[in-house]
Amino acid sequence: MKDRKEPVLDRELDDLAPELRWREWMRRIEAVLFASAAPVATADLARVVGQGVSVDLLLEDLAADLEGRAFEIAAISDGWILRTRTAYAPAIRAASQLGAHLVDLGEFEIAVLAAIAYRQPITRDGLKDIFGKEISRDLIGRLHDRGLISTGPRSPRRGAPYTFVTTDQFLVAFDLESLRDLPDREMLTDAGLYPEG
């Protein structure tokens, strides 16, 4: 097994007819997205297809090919993922309890997560200013453990405290392509779902 060499990836596939070459490139992109737990950048997908080939067109054709299937391609942040269509979320939860970690977020945890999403990068002191009370390290740890937040750049203030930012997993969990897709903050405040200030 030690002598077994990794096969070289033939990106150009010149030996295939054009329609078969295109289909193979689509399948490569599908395989990369399937194997990845995080969004894959377009530039990374371009490494598995021929030089100058439009990854965007391949993604469009793959999305059309997946129409009517239980999963789809979605743009998240600056990358792409293969995910189960939202219509099948109840079936997945019923069968395996996947996604239950998001369901058990309390109202205050969701409010803190919203404050981080709208005000990032933000420190614990910044969160304290919003909520009028100290935000526990345990709560921040729970959001971090679920992959919804991460540490951001250190604040330029005295002591250089850590800041917190949302992650791509946050975007996936709330079915957002980017932070620009967050609901209007004033509307959430008026509905009592986001603290004023």
Helical stretch tally:
10
The helix content is: 40-55%
Amino- and carboxy-terminal Cα gap:
62 Å
Detail the poorly predicted runs.
none
Q: Find the structural class using helix and strand composition.
A: mainly alpha
**Which sheet architecture does the biggest sheet show?**
3 strands, antiparallel
Radius of gyration: 21 Å
Shape: elongated
**Helix and strand pattern:** HEHHEEHHHHHEEHH
Share of β-strand residues: 5-15%
Widest sheet: strand ordering: 1-3-2
Number of strands: 5
The average pLDDT is 87
Description of the structure:
- This protein is mainly α.
- 44% of the residues lie in helices and 10% in strands.
- It has 10 helices and 5 strands, in the order αβααββαααααββαα.
- The strands form 2 sheets. It has a 3-stranded antiparallel β-sheet with strand order 1-3-2. It has a two-stranded antiparallel sheet with strand order 4-5.
- Helix 1 (18-35) crosses helix 3 (55-65).
- The protein is elongated.
- The chain starts with 17 loop residues before the first helix and ends in a 7-residue tail after the last helix.
Task: Give a quick summary of the entry.
The protein is mainly α.
Entry keywords:
10% strand; single chain; 197 residues; mainly alpha; 10 helices
Blueprint of the fold:
Blueprint: H1 18-35, E1 40-41, H2 42-45, H3 55-65, E2 71-76, E3 79-84, H4 89-96, H5 100-103, H6 107-119, H7 124-131, H8 137-145, E4 149-151, E5 164-166, H9 168-173, H10 185-190
Antiparallel strand pairs: 1-3, 2-3, 4-5
Helix pairs in contact: 1-3
